[in-house]
From TrEMBL:
Pfam families: LRR_9. Keywords: Leucine-rich repeat, Nucleus, Repeat. Residues 157-236 have a biased composition (Acidic residues). InterPro entries: AN32 (IPR045081), Leu-rich_rpt (IPR001611), LRR_dom_sf (IPR032675), U2A'_phosphoprotein32A_C (IPR003603). It comes from the Eukaryota. It comes from Albula goreensis. This is Acidic leucine-rich nuclear phosphoprotein 32 family member. GO terms for cellular component: nucleus. GO terms for molecular function: histone binding. Belongs to the ANP32 family. The lineage of its organism: Eukaryota, Metazoa, Chordata, Craniata, Vertebrata. One of its GO terms (biological process) is regulation of apoptotic process. Coiled coil: none annotated. Residues 128-146 form the U2A'/phosphoprotein 32 family A C-terminal domain.
Length: 255
C-alpha cells in the first residue's frame, strides 16, 4: 500500500487537523519521499514512518507541534537540515538503521534546541571511535543517545517508548470502553434470565404433553376394546338364552 492511501485510511473519517498520532510503518513511499502528508496535520505530535523506503525527508511538511519522529529502517543518508525548519519542537528523533556514516551528517540537528533523545542504532556512524562522546559534544542539548545518557544510565521507559502527550489518555478511554462492554454483557445475561424459558424449553414441554396425550389415547383404545369384548359376551349370552327359551316354552305347553 502506498503512503498516500495509507494516510487516507488512517484518518478514519477524521480531518487532518484532528490527528495527533499517525503511524505509516511498512507502507511504500513515492520515490523515497513522503507523499500525502501535508501541513493540514497541524496538531500532529507523533509520526512514525518505519521501513517505508525513505531516502530523504525533504518533502516533510511544516509540523510545528511534532515532538516525536520515527524514521528507523529507511535509507536516509543526509538532508537533516529541514528538520529544524519544519519540526522545530522535536524532542525525540529515531534514525536507527539508516545510511548515516559520519558525524557531520548530524550537524544540522544542533538547531533542534528541544531535542533530548536521539537513536542511531545500526547506523555506520556508531562504529566510529569515541562515537558517543563526540555526539554528546556535538549536540549538547541531548540527554539520551541510543537509550543511555552520557553517564551510561539507561533512559526511563517514558523517554524511550511512545512519548506523546495525550496517548495515555487514549489508552484510558480504551479501558473505559472495555468496561462498558462488560457491563452490557452482564445486563444481557440478566435479561436472558428474566425472559423465562427459551424456545427449546417450550418445545420440550410440548413434546412431554404430546407423550401424555399419546398415553391417554392408548388407554382409551384399551378401554374401548374391553367394552367391545363385554358387548360381544353379552350378545352371545343373549343368543344362547334365546335358543333355550323356545324349548322351555314347549315343555310348559306339554305340561
Amino acid at each position: 500500500m502506498d503512503m498516500k492511501k495509507r494516510i487516507h485510511l488512517e484518518l478514519r473519517n477524521r480531518t487532518p487537523s484532528d490527528v495527533k498520532e499517525l503511524v505509516l510503518d511498512n507502507c511504500r513511499s513515492n520515490e523515497g519521499k513522503m507523499e500525502g502528508l501535508t501541513a493540514e496535520f497541524e496538531q500532529l505530535e507523533f509520526l512514525s514512518t518505519i521501513n517505508v523506503g525513505l531516502t530523504s525527508v525533504a518533502n516533510l511538511p511544516k509540523l510545528a507541534k511534532l515532538k516525536k519522529l520515527e524514521l528507523s529502517d529507511n535509507r536516509i543518508s543526509g538532508g537533516l537540515d529541514v528538520l529544524a525548519e519544519r519540526c522545530p519542537n522535536l524532542t525525540h528523533l529515531n534514525l536507527s538503521g539508516n545510511k548515516i556514516r559520519d558525524l557531520s551528517t548530524m550537524e544540522p540537528l544542533k538547531k533542534l534546541v528541544s531535542l533530548r533523545s536521539l537513536d542511531l542504532f545500526n547506523c555506520e556512524v556508531t562504529n566510529l571511535s569515541d562515537y558517543r562522546e563526540n555526539v554528546f559534544k556535538q549536540l549538547p542539548q541531548l540527554t539520551y543517545l541510543d537509550g543511555y545518557d552520557c553517564a551510561d544510565k539507561e533512559a526511563p521507559d517514558s523517554d524511550t517508548e511512545g512519548y506523546v502527550d495525550g496517548l495515555d489518555d487514549d489508552d484510558d478511554d480504551d479501558d473505559d470502553d472495555d468496561e462498558d462492554e462488560e457491563e452490557l454483557d452482564d445486563e444481557e445475561d440478566e435479561d436472558d434470565e428474566d425472559a423465562g424459558p427459551v424456545a427449546g424449553d417450550e418445545d420440550d414441554e410440548g413434546e412431554e404433553e404430546e407423550d401424555h396425550s399419546g398415553e391417554e389415547e392408548e388407554e382409551e383404545e384399551l378401554n374401548d376394546g374391553e367394552l367391545d369384548d363385554d358387548e360381544d359376551d353379552y350378545e352371545e349370552e343373549r343368543g344362547q338364552k334365546r335358543k333355550r327359551d323356545p324349548e322351555e316354552d314347549g315343555e310348559e305347553e306339554e305340561a
